[in-house]
Write a structure and sequence with these properties.
Layout: H1 3-22, H2 39-53, E1 57-68, E2 71-83, E3 87-94, E4 99-106, E5 109-114, H3 126-132, E6 136-141, E7 181-192, E8 195-204, E9 209-216, E10 222-230, E11 234-246, E12 264-265, E13 286-288, E14 294-296
Parallel strand pairs: 6-12
Antiparallel strand pairs: 1-2, 1-11, 2-3, 3-4, 4-5, 5-6, 7-8, 8-9, 9-10, 10-11, 13-14
């Protein structure tokens, strides 16, 4: 197998996996397949964004669950503290309440550290993990309105994917999905706890993804959130927000963290670190084609393979 083929295998697998998934996207059963963009509902959505960005400080706690095919994929809690202009803290807890990890933003830098051993990520081998599992932290730049807290919370080790609404919206960040917002539809009024809420559906990418939001009539902030990602099977995220506090005083110490003595900076392996070395035989794999036949990489041994990536997520 030629080295160039081996180098491209990881990218090929990801691209083909997503291509197969998206080729099978269908609306979720039990939901109205006819989506109607409603200006009044879009006003409610815009009020939510404004309510997230307006306060000087904002804090809340969320219970988070996600599932697919009737199986729970994760259940945890996270608590968020946000302060202008660019300070943040997120603590992720396991479902039993144990602290898993913490993210701190000090205005310029994001720090991520764990309460015990860090999680074992699938991109690393066991030997590397054993050498770096304890007393390590991660750090990266966090420029104002150009970083995403939501993309980091999965590293905390709580079994959580991304939150439905990115906490960095508070600091002016625009979610990467926003350009694909097709419209917003009203779904009535419901009570969550003791809050009367307007319920809306925000459609993204022609309803390949939907956000269902229960927005308090009092402050326009969510009390309940659901995201449905429609692939070959639906992936569903549920959140319930509580303890929402706006414009309270937050001490500067909450947004400062210094690595303890002896701790080392650690980072996830880079993509190039995961590529097969030149001369290494590529592992064989099988994929379904568009006409539902099967092909294997080994079918093309000693031939040049051209990889055309049309969508990678």
């Amino acid at each position: 197998m030629k080295p160039r083929i081996a180098v491209c295998l990881g990218v090929c697998l990801i691209a083909c996996f997503w291509a197969c998934l998206h080729a099978q996207e269908t609306p979720q059963k039990g939901e109205n397949p006819v989506f109607k963009d409603e200006p009044q509902a879009r006003v409610l959505y815009d009020k939510m964004i404004e309510a997230l960005r307006r306060p000087r400080t904002l804090s809340f706690k969320s219970e988070y669950r996600w599932e697919a095919q009737g199986q729970e994929l994760g259940h945890c809690f996270y608590t968020v503290w946000l302060k202008k202009p660019n300070y943040f803290r997120v603590e992720g807890n396991h479902s039993d309440g144990r602290l898993a990890g913490t993210i701190v933003g000090d205005g310029d830098t994001l720090w991520l550290f764990w309460a015990g051993d860090r999680p074992h990520f699938s991109v690393e081998d066991q030997e590397t993990y054993d050498k770096t599992r304890s007393d390590v932290y991660m750090t990266k730049p966090a420029p104002l309105a150009r970083h995403s807290i939501g993309h980091e919370v999965g590293l905390l080790g709580t079994g959580m994917s991304m939150p439905v609404i990115d906490p960095s919206t508070f600091h002016g960040y625009t979610d990467s999905l926003q350009p694909y917002l097709d419209g917003v539809m009203g779904m009535g009024v419901e009570t969550v706890g003791d809050e009367e809420c307007d319920v809306i559906e925000a459609s993204l990418m022609k309803r390949q993804r939907s956000w269902y939001l229960w927005l308090s009539k009092k402050d326009h902030l969510p009390r309940k959130l659901k995201q449905v990602v429609r692939v070959s099977h639906d992936i569903i995220m549920h959140e319930v927000w509580s303890g929402i506090v706006m414009d309270a005083e937050m001490p500067a110490e909450k947004f400062v963290w210094t690595p303890p003595e002896g701790w080392q900076r650690w980072e996830l392996p880079k993509p190039e670190d995961l590529l097969l070395k030149p001369g290494t035989p590529a592992p064989d794999f099988e994929l379904a084609t568009a006409d539902e036949t099967k092909i294997k990489l080994s079918d093309f041994r000693d031939k040049i393979v051209w990889l055309y990536i049309w969508r990678a997520g």
